[in-house]
Design a protein that fits this description.
The protein has about 350 residues and is mostly beta strands. It contains two helices and 24 strands.
Length: about 350
């Protein structure tokens, strides 16, 4: 019994030691990809297919969601079906894909004072009959302007985060009881003068939903973390103070936009646009915001890069996609790092002994 207790304690100590750290961050490959007929708005990586999904919006472009290779970013020629969907001038503006391959998108079919804010859903990339809905608002708060999205969970455990309006800068969380129909069930604090509470250009959900990370990407582009003390009670996390985004790399983040979170390592990945031809990827401690690693990606992303960084810390891989500076182009690539390994008897044997 004593040895078992010691082993459990050792596992706990090792798990704490692993959190908030990362090793050997590198860019496996990156590319600036052309061939779009309009400007990209948002994009994501679909782990179920190994593809990037790129929102290509202009009326002339036919408002497509294009499918790109996950090995070099080249366009495959495929698109998601928009059969039966009502699209506005922005088309499918934001997008994310769950671990089960279900794809969610956001759009605004009617851009007026009382604009519609629609959630699109594809059961998979080949779904020829996607659905759309205006999520119910039991809290009296509607789905946020779909500028960026993220998703965690599957089936009835799915949570979709949607951000962010140019005036509210907050995140609405959509949940479901049947796996397909969604409602707004919580939302972060509406913008204040505190820029650590303003989320617009990117959002990263966290299992357990005790916190959420985001980027403002509007002027300063700060990286923020909001903590929850219960429904509708979100506040900027105390002690999470990343470097000022105006500071030039390698000590700062540039204009932060696409963001992703590795829950087991407790680190945040963020891309910054610095108006140079070789922008930076920064990895931040999830508790303090301190820079743990930083490397150039070899590409130039736009100030309003939107996009996402989709992370699997058990594989030691992440994929990023963002709008490029050049018109009708997007930037994408793959990040590698030492994978997170769950504590086992083998890797804590010295402590156990």
């Amino acid at each position: 019994m004593k040895k078992a207790i010691l082993l459990l304690l050792s596992l706990f100590i090792v798990s704490l030691a692993f959190a908030g750290s990362i090793n050997n961050v590198a860019i496996s490959w990156s590319a600036t990809v052309g061939g779009l007929t309009g400007n990209p708005s948002c994009g994501t990586y679909n782990w179920a297919t190994g593809h990037f999904l790129v929102c290509d919006y202009t009326a002339a472009a036919g408002l497509k969601v294009r499918i790109a290779s996950g090995t070099d970013g080249s366009l495959t020629g495929g698109t998601l079906s928009t059969t039966g969907l009502t699209l506005g001038t922005l088309g499918v503006f934001s997008i994310c894909a769950g671990p089960d391959g279900v794809v969610y998108g956001g759009g605004n079919p009617v851009l007026v004072v009382l604009e519609t804010r629609v959630l699109y859903r594809w059961a998979n990339e080949g779904d020829g009959a996607p659905t759309q809905q205006e999520p119910a608002q039991p809290l009296g708060v509607g789905m946020q302007f779909p500028r960026a999205m993220d998703v965690i969970g599957t089936g009835t455990s799915t949570i979709v985060g949607v951000t962010g309006d140019s005036t509210d800068y907050n995140v609405t969380f959509l949940t479901t009881t049947d796996g397909t129909t969604f409602s707004v069930t919580d939302y972060t604090t509406v913008a204040s003068l505190n820029e650590r509470e303003q989320i617009k250009g990117g959002v990263a959900l966290v299992p357990g939903m005790a916190k959420v990370y985001g980027t403002k990407a509007d002027g300063a582009g700060q990286v923020c973390r909001m903590d929850s003390a219960g429904i509708q009670t979100w506040a900027a996390a105390a002690g999470f103070t990343p470097p000022n985004s105006y500071t030039a790399p390698p000590t700062g983040l540039g204009q932060a936009s696409p963001i992703g979170y590795a829950p087991n390592l407790n680190v945040v990945f963020v891309l910054g646009s610095s108006d140079v031809a070789n922008d930076y990827l920064s990895v931040l401690d999830g508790d303090t915001g301190a820079i743990l690693a930083q490397t150039q990606i070899g590409q130039n992303i736009a100030i309003y890069g939107y996009g996402a960084i989709d992370v699997d810390d058990e594989l030691g891989e992440a994929y990023f996609i963002a709008r490029a500076v050049a018109v009708n182009n997007f930037v994408c690539g793959k990040i590698t790092f030492d994978p997170w390994l769950p504590p086992t008897k083998a890797n804590v044997w010295n402590i156990y002994e």
